[in-house]
Specification:
- The chain is 29% helix and 19% strand.
- By secondary structure, it is α/β, with parallel strands linked by helices.
- The strands form two sheets. The chain has a three-stranded parallel beta sheet with strand order 1-2-3.
């Protein structure tokens, strides 16, 4: 998860990722891309969690931050989460169940958009390779 100056969304996002109830083990990789707001302090609250890896770097942009995170992955599947996203309860379980059931290379979930605090247009698609 690349993080840069998203203090308004970050706590909710991280809670939604770390609090997933699932039979699968997973690691959350957070790349602090040189945040100058309170994002760094929010991230540090999760530093004692053994399933969280925090990487701090100078601001190098979203793509570099994401690639730094990918370099640390030692898993069959990767879930990309932006620091202003909120994972639905059970999202990790549902996506990984589908991936393993279908021996899939790619599983794509859906998402809802929000506007003025309300759910807007729902976007859903699924791809299994």
């Amino acid at each position: 998860m690349p993080v840069y100056n998203v203090e308004s969304y970050l706590q909710t996002c991280l809670n939604s990722v770390i609090d997933q109830q699932t039979k699968y083990s997973y690691r959350t990789i957070i790349i602090d891309d040189g945040s100058t707001d309170k994002s760094t302090k929010i991230i540090e609250k999760f530093s004692r969690n053994a399933s969280v890896l925090i990487i701090k770097q100078k601001n190098r942009g979203l793509s570099v931050a994401r690639n730094v995170g990918l370099d640390c992955v030692d898993a069959r599947y990767v879930l990309f989460v932006d620091s202003d996203d909120i994972l639905a309860d059970g999202a990790v379980e549902i996506l990984l169940d589908k991936a393993f059931e279908n021996d899939a290379d790619i599983v794509e979930g859906g998402f809802d958009t929000f506007k003025n605090g309300k759910i807007g247009e729902r976007k859903i698609s699924c791809v299994n390779a």
